[in-house]
Every structure is written in structure tokens, then in C-alpha cells.
């Protein structure tokens, strides 16, 4: 499944360029019974299987061991779970400060609760919906972190302007042609005047955030320039 991540796009390039390492540990390799079972019935009865604690914990020990060999000093153990803290850019930025992370992906009904109690530092959710495995949620988190590694993007400047990085949504973007069946690119972007373009983009960012995500603005202290640009937009749109 992780080939989707490691063989494509920005993350794929960063992986090929050795900007980060991915190690995989399959709990099935740490089973001791003939059937190599990693799941069992849930105690108390009812439908659904649970991932057993032993193979999980052995996988985790292996993951810790390999991280140590690779020189990782501060590491964090994450369990992907719909019951966890919701992932946002702040969470990703915090995770980016670790030099290694271990992500546990569940399957079935999830993992034995004792595994979480004994080993997990933080549970993370990708949203209030349930998917069938933790792998895709884990890939979302990895992608979010990797695009912050210096050198992974062609320009770190584009990361800084991304939505949420400065508490605002990104401005709209356009590419050639200038006129597509009568739909035209805003004049400001074609003006060649850097200051004008900067102001236009900032104003668009503020306006979009105001319209689409007022909750983000409530958390943000606007600068004088930002307040002025936003107010100008608000009054312009009242007319
Ligand atoms: N019975 C569990 C859901 C199990 S889904 C519950 O209701 O809490 C199987 C696995 O998919 C989980 O162990 C978890 O690793 C992953 N998963 C499902 N939804 C997720 C979400 N929103 N965020 C992160 N991981 C999720």
C-alpha cells in the first residue's frame, strides 16, 4: 500500500533522495503460532476481531531497535484511530520536530486496548469518519510531515504560503492561458508589480478565510495591514 506514497510525487522524490527513511514492520512476522494469527475474537463476545497485543508489541520493539540503529534520538509512537486527536497543520508541524516517529496502523475493530495504554504516546484521527485500516491515515500524516523537510519541495516558499501555515487559507492560483474561453486571470497577478501582487494575494487569503473558515480567523491576531485589507474587502462586497 505504501508504494502509493514512496513512489510518487514530492514524497516519492524525497524518499528516493534519502531525505527520510521508511521502515515497515508486519506484526504477522512476529507471531509464534502455526497460523500466524494477528487477530482474535473480542472478549465479551460480539462481531469483529481485534489485533492481538503480542505481535504488535514485538513489532514495536523491532521498530524502536531499528530507529536506534539509524540514530533516531527523539521518537514518538502514534496510533492512528478515529478516537484520536484530529490531525491539523499544527499537529503536523509539531510532529515535524521529531527525528523519528513510529505509526501503528490498526485493522479489524482496532488493537487490544492494553497495547495503547502500554506503548502509545498519542492517538491521531484524520477526521470523524471510519475507514477500514490505519495505513491510509498514516500515509496522510507522513505526507504532511515530509513536505516540510527542507529540500523535499522545489521551493520552501510555497510551503509557507500553503493553507493553514500562517493561520489562513491559501489564495487562488492561475496558470496559462490568461484568457480561457472568456474566463480571465485577475489583472493584479499580471501587473508584474510585486507589492501589488503580494497585497492582492494576502487580501484574497483573508477574504477566503473569512468566508469559508471564520473559525480560523477567530484564533488569529491580524496585523494592521491584514485588518485593513480584510475590512476593505468586506465593505466592497456589501455594496
Ligand atoms: N472500531 C474502531 C474502528 C476500527 S477501524 C472504532 O470505532 O474506534 C480499523 C482501523 O482503521 C483503526 O484501528 C485505525 O487504525 C484505522 N482508522 C479508522 N478510521 C480512522 C480515522 N478516522 N483516523 C485514523 N485512523 C483510522
Report what the structure shows:
The protein is of the alpha/beta class. It has two domains: 3-146, SPOUT methyltransferase, trefoil knot domain (Alpha/beta knot, 3-Layer(aba) Sandwich), CATH 3.40.1280; 161-236, tRNA(m1g37)methyltransferase, domain 2 (Trp Operon Repressor, Chain A, Orthogonal Bundle), CATH 1.10.1270.20. 44% of the residues lie in helices and 13% in strands. The protein has helices spanning 3-6, 9-16, 53-69, 89-95, 113-119, 135-146, 156-161, 187-190, 194-212, 214-218, 224-238; strands spanning 39-41, 49-51, 75-86, 100-104, 122-125, 179-180, 183-184. The strands form three sheets. It has a three-stranded parallel sheet with strand order 4-3-5. A two-stranded antiparallel ribbon has the order 1-2. A two-stranded antiparallel ribbon has the order 6-7. Helix 3 (53-69) packs parallel to helix 5 and helix 9 (194-212) crosses helix 11. The longest helix is centred in the C-terminal third of the chain and has 19 residues, at 194-212. The chain is elongated and about 70 Å long.
